[in-house]
Amino acid sequence: IDDAVSYLRYHIIKCNERIYKKATNELKYKGMGTTLSGILISSVGKVIINIGDSRVYGINENKEFLQLSEDHTLVNDMLKHHEITYEQALNHPKKNVLTNAMGVWNSVKIDLIPYPDVLNSILICSDGLHGYVAKEVIEEVMKTNTLTATLKMRKLLNLSLRVGGYDNI
Predict the structure, then answer these.
(1) 69: buried, middle or exposed (CB in 10 Å: 19+, 13-18, 0-12)?
(2) What is the radius of gyration, based on Cα positions, of the chain?
(3) Is 168 helix (H, G, I), strand (E, B) or coil?
(4) Cα–Cα distance between 32 and 53 in angstroms, integer?
(5) pLDDT tens across 17-73, in order?
(6) What are phi and psi of 31, to 5 degrees?
(7) Using CA of residue 59, residue 165, residue 155, residue 149, what is the dihedral sign?
(8) Where are the beta strands (DSSP E) in 53-132?
(9) Beta-strand (E) ranges in the chain?
(10) Tell me, what DSSP letter sits at residue 102?
(11) Element spanning 154, H or E
(12) What mean pLDDT, rounded, does the chain reach?
């Protein structure tokens, strides 16, 4: 797994440098940045990647719906430091303020998380979904055995759009 982590770290740092350079040197890209979440599955290991507030969820063999990544946001930091409650965080006016993103700063914090041994399913999504649709609703859709992965994706997309989701979903 060390080879996979080294590979990812190197290439993500290079991508961050390119985005940052464009965002600072070209007026039309000023302020540009992005989040990154995903999973690398290779012959040398499986790794969850996270930068920003997109998320990786999984359902394990015990049918538990787990958030496998951690949001890099001001509100999440406030939650971790017990400055606000979970209920206050849900509608906090600064819930979309990122503390980490690619291309915004000349260096980036990269979460590379070991992939759990057994996951029955995974979901990688942006705040365009989890910021508009309650975690419990996402969990219910993901645990529905009668839907294919494609139909689950369509249902989650439509749920987000119905409640006003306008961000990239």
Answers:
(1) buried
(2) 17
(3) coil
(4) 15
(5) 999 999 999 999 998 999 999 999 988 889 999 999 999 999 999 999 999 999 999
(6) 80, 0
(7) negative
(8) 55-60, 65-67, 111-114, 119-125
(9) 36-42, 45-51, 55-60, 65-67, 111-114, 119-125
(10) B
(11) helix 149-162
(12) 93
